[in-house]
Amino acid sequence: MEITALDVIEAIGSTMDELSHMSPADEFTDLDIDSLSLVEAAVILSNKFGVRVDEFELAEAGTAATAASMLTKKLELEPAL
Hints:
Blueprint: H1 5-15, H2 35-49, H3 55-61, H4 64-77
Helix pairs in contact: 1-2, 1-4, 2-3
């Protein structure tokens, strides 16, 4: 299963209204996403896609597009939660 940047944005934006306007290439740092928001986003994505992801991985990914690629790779490599 390939996860797209729009999948990531939809998952995060459905719960976190303040991030529903982001585009695939927006840098999380430019959106003023703090560490607590990254934790919340990581939980949302972990639950939605069935792979473990933490706030540090999201911070390193930096954008929804890169986060989508990371999640797709994790799905290929890790057994589902």
